[in-house]
Amino acid sequence: MIEFEKALKLILENTPDPAGICKVPLSDASGRVLASDVVSDVDIPPFNKSAMDGFALRAEDLEVVPANLNVVMDIPAGTTPSGPIGPGEAASVMTGAPIPQGSNTVVQVEWTSGFGEKTVKIDRSVNAGANVSPLGEIVENGATVLSKGTLIDVEEVALLAAVGCDPVPVFELPSVAILTTGDEIVAPSEKPGPSQIRDTNGPALAAFVRSLGLNPVLLHRVGDDVETLRRAVTEGLEYDCLIMSGGVSAGAYDFVEDVLKELDVTIHTRRIAVKPGKPTIFGTHDNKMIFGLPGNPVSGIVIARLLVETALRVRMGQNNSGIVTVRARLTKDIRKKANRAWYIHGTLSSGNEITVTPVANRGSADLPAAARGNCLIVTPKGETLIERDSTVDVVVWERSW
Fold first, then answer.
1. Same domain, 39 and 11
2. Nearest to 101 by CA among 136, 65, 72
3. Contact call for residues 231 and 218 (beta carbons, < 8 A)
């Protein structure tokens, strides 16, 4: 067995770069990864902008208050001032509208009287620059607003729209195939017969891949037969990433590693010092990634979250693609064997502090326990007791919160 950290390092060192670059409409960019830096083609705001409904004026005209000023123009949002203002003058202005040349501040309407009249009375003095967003305050023309490798979400879409980035340069998405193996496996829609179980890994791994914004292809399930497995793996190697479940242990019918070697796949990991997920294979072939995950469903899901997701995000071109952890206070003791690092499903709670409670489980097939959890508690190799109230690392994802 190799340590988890070494396995992760080997996987990342051998993860291919993104396949290429394409452009997509801004409306389709969410969930994609930027393939180049994005530079603004405008100043934001593009003019000295009022941040309040009120009156644009010269702050020096309010050295003595109350002050009465002549209202010389009205400036709704989306219109251009008709000219400058001078001493003793003001302009009625709406939020988001440009202030006229000569003005240097905006007095909010609540501090005035006479709105809509030819003269306005200002009750309070204000400093120059108050309630004004100056030209280019947020973004300067030519500034880089988003970096290559950024995962595009809602806020990034808004920013891309603001700087006119449409279409958007993004990395091409890797193709992913999923293959489940085992003579005992039947479709989820079928009633299992004696010695059979339903295929949980195929649907679960497909859902996992979709959660990354990718579209998986579910290959036909195969039994524990070398020839059919070879044909299925050969088909799977046509994709950028092949994720297999089952057939990776040391049993008499575990043929995955042998078939991969026959097909000239370079094997980088075989056994990892983790629980669950020890029999995990990672290999590469002609710029393709191959993962062989344990058949036990909880093991496969855990390794997918820890290793497969990290590699796929790198393959997608995403920066900051590593495992995301937080520190939390443990609410119950955890006892374990010292020979491996354990990743235990837990329930994360955040209030005055972040706490995590381990979920009781009956092993690597206990899907109800995994479904009750929303995170993974990291318990290091070499430790046998992690005491209540200890601070531990916790692997988190979107569901965790």
1. no
2. 72
3. no
The residue range of the domain holding 166 is: 21-44+144-171
* pTM reported for the whole predicted model: 0.88
Rounded distance between C-alpha atoms, residue 282 and residue 297, angstroms:
18
Tens digit of pLDDT for each residue in 280-326?
Answer: 999 999 999 999 999 999 999 999 999 999 999 999 999 987 899 99
End-to-end CA gap in the chain:
33
In a domain, 98, yes or no: yes
Q: Which helix (H) or strand (E) holds 208?
A: helix 201-211
| 363: Cβ contacts below 8 Å, ≥ 6 apart | 296, 298
Name the token pair of 289: 């990634």
- Those residues whose C-beta lies under 8 Å from the C-beta of residue 281, and which sit 6 or more positions away, are 244, 248, 256, 257, 260, 267, 269, 270, 290, 291, 292
Q: Is the domain of 178 the same as that of 307?
A: yes
Query: What CATH number has the domain bearing residue 29?
Result: 3.90.105.10
Closest CA to 98 of 146, 133, 47, 132: 47
- Evaluate whether residue 139 is within a structural domain: no
In a domain, 320, yes or no: no
Establish if 204 belongs to a structural domain.
Answer: yes
Asked if omega into 276 is within 30° of 0 (cis), the reply is yes
